[in-house]
Design a protein that fits this description.
Blueprint: H1 10-15, H2 17-25, H3 46-69, E1 87-88, H4 98-124, E2 135-136, H5 139-147, H6 160-181, H7 188-214, H8 218-232, E3 242-243, E4 246-247, H9 263-271
Parallel strand pairs: 1-2
Antiparallel strand pairs: 3-4
Length: about 290
């Protein structure tokens, strides 16, 4: 398990550890996070958005099913348009706490169902689901943790709380991704489905954030949050589980609304760099229009 460390203020992180950490992730020539490499979201259709969501759900499902059940998605549930890739890393967590184990199993079932639902919905609306791309749910966690300043050799499958820290990497990103996509969805049925997916991801995020806060992992959470903020773009939106010295389980803006991320911001995080260059959790990039 990672030792707790004192968290530097975010702006200081951005000036020091953040830039060094980003360089560890990025391609040799780092491009400004502000440069839009994925399509303008306003040009995307509903199938583009649903398939982008499917890529993200593949990633989450592969992490959780491996951690909870010791297996990944079934082969028939990962075929489709684009280059199908292998999944590297991941194994069953030997949970010590039965409540955390049950949380892991519940979330794993939800994420697997999200994959199945999105594939079915895309087909039902007359589209073609993308294949699961190559995914790294192993060594990428160690690279991310080291870039965040949490030390070398992090393994999210080594303990209950390491698993939760790994989960924290994804859940807030999924919530903000669905929120950001909502304005571009044309079909009301698709929008309603996306709202349902967002709500479940928000429940998951709250579970993970609550457990990490209650058990004293706020410093580690903050470092991961800082790294996400360092790579996703110029805005300073991401929040840890403590804000102004108080619990911050529900990260919101001044109106108590969840903030949005663009597809490019999401890609910057899951690719692990500020340039939108494929890598990180998606070594060869995502499948579909948004990549």
């Amino acid at each position: 398990m990672i030792e707790q460390t004192t968290t530097a203020p975010r702006r200081q992180f951005m000036k020091t550890a953040g830039l060094a950490g980003v360089a560890m992730f990025a391609a040799p020539h780092l491009i400004s996070p502000a440069m839009a490499l994925s399509p303008d979201p306003s040009t995307l259709n509903d199938f583009d958005i649903l398939n982008f969501a499917l890529n993200l759900e593949y990633l989450e499902a592969e992490y959780y099913t491996r951690a909870a059940f010791g297996r990944g998605l079934f082969p028939n549930d990962t075929t489709g348009v684009g280059t199908q890739g292998a999944v590297t890393g991941g194994r069953k967590v030997q949970f010590k706490n039965k409540i955390i184990r049950q949380y892991a199993e519940e979330i794993a079932n939800d994420e697997e169902n999200h994959v199945l639902f999105l594939r079915s919905a895309i087909t039902a609306f007359g589209g073609q689901p993308v294949a699961e791309p190559a995914i790294n749910v192993g060594t990428q966690f160690a690279a991310l943790a080291e870039a965040a300043g949490l030390g070398a050799g992090f393994d999210p499958y080594a303990s209950d709380f390491n698993f939760l820290l790994g989960a924290f990497v994804f859940e807030d990103v999924g919530v903000t991704a669905y929120k950001g996509a909502a304005r571009f969805i044309q079909n009301k049925d698709v929008l309603e489905a996306a709202a349902g997916l967002l709500a479940v991801e928000a429940y998951h995020a709250s579970e993970v954030r609550t457990l990490l806060f209650f058990n004293g992992f706020a410093p580690q959470v903050q470092k991961i949050s800082n790294l996400r903020d360092a790579v996703d773009g110029a805005t300073d939106d991401d929040q840890g589980v403590i804000l102004n010295g108080k619990a911050n389980i529900v990260p919101t803006d001044s109106n108590s609304l969840v903030f949005s991320r663009t597809p490019q911001q999401v890609l910057n995080i899951v690719y692990g760099n500020g340039s939108g260059t494929p890598g990180g959790f998606f070594p060869n990039g995502t499948n579909g229009t948004v990549k």
